[in-house]
Amino acid sequence: MTTSRDSTLLGDPDREAQVYGTGACPYTGRARRLLREQGLDHVYIDLDEPQHRRLEALLQTHTGQRTVPWVFVRGRFVGGYDELDQEARLGQLGTSPADRVAVLAPPSETPTRPGREVELGEALAASSGRKRPSRPETHQLVDPMKLMELGLTVEGETEGEPLTLALIEEVAGDEGAPLQLVMAGVALMDELELERESDVCFRVCTGRCQSWGALDRLEHLLSLRQDDRGDGKPSFDIEPVECLDRCDRAPAVVVVTEDGIAGLDAARDEDLSAAVEQLCEG
């Protein structure tokens, strides 16, 4: 099946199904065959094609899953082949999280505590991928395609020169985009690396941690750095990272100094302010 540019929209609710995979992966073929058997028309996006290769990083960030294939049904991320097969066996494909609870638990056995059905449904929907915080998500993920476009714009402006925060600020101004979004786009670009200007660096996860306020933490750090910088050399750097592999501690921030590395779990603005004051005073 051929694809258009629009068909790469992650989790497109207007399509019955989407499969992102590779021709060499047998599970990609099995997922496509299973969707056909279930009567679901699907769009296939071949990640080996040059125009689609950058999508793999977006999919990993968007879903937390690291391996092909990525399967979406009516805009909902299902998982890989195993998760797709499980939902097909249980008759859950295309249903909402609450509906899937009803499939697993007959009415007489369904918990009666208010809201429990929704909680179980959300747990099922998030069962694939890496471990996440137990507390509810507080923020919406930014469209990864938008972030990719911002990252590509920055990449086009570097022209082989070292990447600086000043250049990112310039792109943000030209694009009329918040600086923290452009920084998150930079994190998706494998070829881009921010030039270090100081001995202290705050590394901020701007991937899945977005759902727990990571971009707010990044914005706060940027404001602290702006106040700190003045006319001289900044006392700390900020590096956006696609994933810090600390998803159960989101929003994840790691501080890198000459003395070592320290993690700030479930970082808050006040935690970052205290760390800057402690590490960068004077």
UniProtKB/TrEMBL annotation:
Biological processes, Gene Ontology terms: cellular response to oxidative stress
GO molecular function: glutathione disulfide oxidoreductase activity
Region (Disordered): 106-137
N-terminal signal peptide: none
Membrane-crossing residue ranges in chain numbering: none
PROSITE patterns: GLUTAREDOXIN_2 (PS51354)
InterPro entries per record: Glutaredoxin, Glutaredoxin_subgr, Thioredoxin-like_sf
GO cellular component: cytoplasm
Segments forming domain Glutaredoxin: 19-78
Similarity comment: Belongs to the glutaredoxin family.
Name this polypeptide is given: Glutaredoxin 3
